[in-house]
Amino acid sequence: MNPRKPYPSDLSDARWALIAPTLQAWRQARIDRRPTGQPAQVDLREVFNAILYVNRTGISWKYLPHDFPSHN
Question: What is this structure's pTM?
């Protein structure tokens, strides 16, 4: 994970430990179906934290702070 100051909406380590296996299995299934088989370049936890940030603040995805993964 990138070293950044956490936001109040970020997942705790304990909550991440509960959902990480499900998200990682989902990601692996998608990678297995890719023609190239190359893994994604973003951290799943950071994407999930970004989703929680958007949900909590109500902002548009493209207005996320720069320390989250790019909206593109």
Answer: 0.79
